[in-house]
């Protein structure tokens, strides 16, 4: 069976729920629950990361999503979500670590 990313309408609902959550910790909890049984495209990951303002939150969400990413080739958009080189380096480390587990 070929794994597929979360359906478009389900993903839009997820994004709306994340946007409505008041605090980053609550938003991360929502993403964690969404990852149970779901997979994501790199573009979906990029979109979710864009909903978070702070680099630390983005990195935490990437840590949650990275094992559920289906494409490891299209990561440039994900890395564009990080403003600082240190954050990009950490994001690369997370993605590399996740890729090695498979």
Biggest pleated sheet: none
Helix content, binned percent: 55-70%
Instruction: List the quaternary state of the chains.
Output: single chain
Query: Mean pLDDT, rounded to whole units?
Result: 92
> Treating each run of at least 4 consecutive H or I residues as one helix, how many helices?
6
Order of helices and strands: HHHHHH
- Give the low-confidence spans: none
Alpha carbon gap, first and last residue = 16 Å
Global outline: globular
| Rg | 13 Å
Kindly estimate the percentage of residues that lie in beta strands according to DSSP.
under 5%
Task: Kindly state the number of beta strands.
Answer: 0
> How would you classify the helix and strand content by structural class?
mainly alpha
Total number of distinct structural domains: 1
């Amino acid at each position: 069976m070929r794994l597929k990313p979360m359906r478009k309408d389900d993903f839009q609902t997820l994004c709306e729920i994340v946007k409505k959550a008041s605090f980053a910790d609550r938003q991360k909890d929502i993403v964690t629950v969404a990852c149970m049984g779901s997979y994501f495209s790199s573009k979906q990951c990029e979109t979710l990361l864009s909903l978070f303002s702070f680099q630390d939150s983005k990195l935490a969400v990437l840590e949650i999503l990275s094992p559920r990413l289906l494409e490891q080739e299209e990561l440039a958009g994900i890395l564009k979500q990080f403003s600082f080189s240190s954050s990009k380096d950490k994001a690369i480390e997370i993605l590399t670590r996740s890729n090695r587990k498979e």
